[in-house]
Amino acid sequence: MNKKYIMSLDQGTTSSRAIIFDRSGSIVALSQKEFRQIFPAPGLVEQDANEIWNTQITVAKEALEKTGLSFDDIDSIGITNQRETVVVWDKNTGIPIYNAIVWQCRRSAEYCDTLKSQGYTDMIKAKTGLVIDAYFSATKLKWILDNVEGAREKANKGELICGTIDTWLLWKLTDGQVHATDYSNASRTMLYNIRELCWDKELLELFDIPKSMLPSVLPSSGLFGNTSPLVTGSTVPISGIAGDQQAALFGQTCFNEGEAKNTYGTGCFLLLNTGNTPHINNDGLISTIAWGIDGSITYALEGSVFVGGAVIQWLRDQLGFITSAADSELAASKVEDTGGVYLVPAFTGLGAPYWDQYATGTMVGITRGTNKYHIIRAALEAIAYQSYDVIKAMEKSANIKLIELNVDGGACANSLLMQFQSDILASSINRPACIESTALGAAYLAGLATGFFESTESIKQNKVISKRFRPNMSAEIAEAKLSGWHKAVKRTLTDEN
Ligand code: ADP
């Protein structure tokens, strides 16, 4: 006992990663492997579940090899995963009957439109906290049962089981001994009742999914099972699981109601801890389970910005204004402000809180004096404005005021962006030294269950803030800028044109 290391398996959309942490939450080793994305037709996205597993176990072994460690040195394993992606496999052979259908896949979009027109929106929102969308697992699962030959008969005979990626990895790691998931992943399926904490009978009937296919739902921090010696050479407890965004919230140590994180990646993912209450309102936000620990459920509000760091990629790849994403900071600092330019990067419509899927990008306020630096600055500010809008919607929904925001993701390295975010929010921004919040969250969940980490309090001590940004803009200026932004958004929305 008293092992020194803990391992996180971070199974993402494009790559599988394994990270070994020590007790201080510092990274000891990291290994990463990409895998194939399968695009059978426009809008359809699949992955090979066996390839996901093979890359995941390979990186776990590689990370150990890099440091001369073995599974014997690992206290426990935490899993965090791309959410909603679903796999169906034969219980007896362990062979998937179809590729994993990925969260991005739109194959069930039309069926979702039908559900909406049949009036299921309110019922589904009330039970699951979700908006009806092809994004979530339920309609993907139904598609597999309806379209793979013989699937429904086998499912009805109890021969098939299914799960999100955490469940698939857990089943493989335990050599088929454990079929389970955690509360956070269950809450993304659109089949789980987040108030009553059960697979919802009415929803299972609606989607025609036999309950026997579904995994047991267990606390996010607690023993799920032990790895099989056939797989890892020795036995290691798997004692933490959470979906990637919830794991990041945990890794950012947002344990209390009113604490929030924003991940600035390709898009931005905002999660606000709302304590033991699911705030289910008609506000375009999602209510989800953040985690369940020790018999207590913590809920979160979730909102996303479709185009976050992607607007910087657009400046680089489409406009050629910069040569690397990091250059955007220096370029934007060459001008004092945007000179009245606002860029609304509604490249794929606008998400929360506007929800206009037909909106397209707009730039306003251009004059003879506008140069590329103004536009670069406007693009960075747009990331902050969009995040601001989601945060305001969350504050309203949960009736709280955010004091500080914890940040991670690639674009949080941009200090100009972070300072501007702090200025318009009038809140502090905490940028941690370790921005691997997702993997860290899974490690914390696993280690709390085994005693590797003593308590959430001791975990908080681990957190090192590398930089704190404090608001430094007058309320009048911030308001004027926000007003300009909201006018630009109005001109972007399709009903307003
Ligand atoms: P993902 O996990 O979605 O792939 P990452 O967290 O790796 O995203 O972040 C990459 C995104 O962040 C890219 O869209 C990139 O344009 C943006 N980005 C990275 N560094 C910077 C920077 N210094 N300033 C602004 N944007 C950045």
Largest sheet, strands/sense/barrel: 7 strands, mixed
Q: Helix share of residues?
A: 25-40%
The CATH architecture term of the domain at 5-245 is 2-Layer Sandwich
- CATH names the topology of the domain at 5-245 as Nucleotidyltransferase, domain 5
Distance between the termini: 66 Å
Mean pLDDT, nearest integer? 94
CATH superfamily label of the domain at 5-245: ATPase, nucleotide binding domain
How many E strands? 23
Reading off the top of the CATH hierarchy, the class of the domain at 5-245 is best stated as Alpha Beta
**Structural classification:** alpha+beta
Distinct ligands: adenosine-5'-diphosphate
Low-confidence stretches: none
Characterization of this structure:
Helices cover 35% and strands 24% of the residues. It has a domain at 5-245: ATPase, nucleotide binding domain (Nucleotidyltransferase, domain 5, 2-Layer Sandwich). A hairpin with a 3-residue loop joins strand 15 (260-264) and strand 16 (268-273). The mean pLDDT is 94. The chain is built from 17 helices and 23 strands. Helix 1 crosses helix 6, helix 10 (244-251) packs across helix 15 (437-450) and helix 13 (372-398) packs across helix 14. Residues 265-266, 309-310, 312-313, 325-326, 328-329, 409-411, 413-414 line the site of adenosine-5'-diphosphate (ADP).
